[in-house]
Design goal:
47% of the residues lie in helices and 14% in strands. By secondary structure, the protein is α/β, with parallel strands linked by helices. It has two domains: 178 residues, NAD(P)-binding Rossmann-like Domain (Rossmann fold), CATH 3.40.50.720; 84 residues, N-(1-d-carboxylethyl)-l-norvaline Dehydrogenase, domain 2. It is globular and about 55 Å long. The termini are far apart. The structure holds nicotinamide-adenine-dinucleotide (NAD). Nicotinamide-adenine-dinucleotide binds next to helix 1.
Amino acid sequence: MTITTVGVLGLGQMGTGVLQVFAQSGYQVIGVESDQGQLDRAIGSIDKRLSSRVEKGKMPQEDKDNIMGRITVSTKMEDMGDCDLVEEAVPEDMELKKKLFGDLDKICKKETIFGSNTSCLSVTDMAVATNRGDKFLGLHFHNPAPVMRLFEIVRTIMTSEETIETARKFGESLGKTVVVAPDVGGFIVTRLFTPFLLGAVRMLEEGIATREDIDISMKMAVNHPMGPLEVIDFIGLDTELSIAETLYEETKDPKYAPPLLLKKMVTAGWLGRKCGKGFYDYK
Ligand SMILES: NC(=O)c1ccc[n+]([C@@H]2O[C@H](COP(=O)([O-])OP(=O)(O)OC[C@H]3O[C@@H](n4cnc5c(N)ncnc54)[C@H](O)[C@@H]3O)[C@@H](O)[C@H]2O)c1
């Protein structure tokens, strides 16, 4: 199947970056976001990022104009009917995702491939909310999507080989490196990385080290570009808590149990960079 028009549902932190990646790679894109204020911020941030590249001489103005020209935005899912592929990037909430995929199933043409950007929810559970299990997979971009090079495809037992191959070629056309993972909680990346991030929160909670020493240690000793607590602030503490809860629920493995400190911080509304306060202060 040839993909020319791509939809992105939910233009928050991830969807905005994914929309930019698609448009930069030459696809016609339609971004749908339910919150008009967020829709405006999403387009504004793509425009700002590309303008900065033009100002630094890294991109001709004409390229920026062409990229922006390929982007259409809307607050209505009905506008995604003709998309060849729709990538969902709404919050990590199974009931919300199932409801929206059920609606999309009625709106989109029967050939449309559905992908979810979920970090660790069951892709199979979402697929059964539609009548196109063979055309349903996880398409997991990493944060920030325009920078991170991995495209993690998640295959369910219903996903057809043809859909996997179309998705693989699509991922490569975005300039990403493709891996295919089974539909187990957290797939490859989140399953492996989450115990490390939660371990950093426990280390802070137990008073073993300060937040600065934890982050500096991992940056200086292991060459990570960000420390684990900085990473959680970047991901969003609410998203990280939801990931831990899902993985713990599925595996009952204590390494995924959400630390109390993380729960308390989310309850307090300290969600990380997106709200100006998390393990660090960004105001
Ligand atoms: N944050 C990360 O680092 C990261 C990394 C990889 C994957 N993910 C996954 O990507 C998904 C999105 O995460 P995020 O961090 O971008 O969340 P986010 O909260 O920043 O963005 C979600 C967006 O979806 C919008 N939305 C909610 N309901 C909608 C609807 N009915 N129609 C259209 N838009 C709607 C919200 O207004 C919001 O702008 C989640 O599944 C998350 O697990 C996140």
